[in-house]
Amino acid sequence: MNDKFSHxxxxxxxxxxxxxxxxxxxxxxxxxxxxxxxxxxxINVKVNYRHQKNIWILxxxxxxxxxxxxxxxxxxxxxQVRTVASYQENPEVLLKIGFSIAGIxxxxxxxxIIILLFSYTKWLNESYKRVxxxxxxxxxxxxxxxxxxxxxxxxxx
Length: 157
Hints:
Elements: H1 6-31, H2 35-86, H3 91-143, H4 152-156
């Protein structure tokens, strides 16, 4: 069983190493900035994060409203199918098809909305990491202490 998932573990480890190296490079880039550049960078990433957070909250509200509207449309569609099926000799087949179409479309849209919200959440998380890195470097500048002394060569090994 370990052999089946070894390539997935290898890929995951490489991804984590690359992420760690990128974070180290970001930290070193911020560390080497002047005081004014660092303050500008901190303000810029903080404003960007707050803007993304507001958009995220708005997208959640709009997603809920969209889901409610889709559910309303599906119930209207099902009611129309029931009305049409009442005039048919064999209404069961028409009702099954109508319920299937409404259910599949509703579930597909809900899954799509959830995927989009999760991807936006990941993007928001990366933005928050940039804010934390800038805040960490600012704090280190004020205290004149550095938390990390990492060489890029050490990260690659």
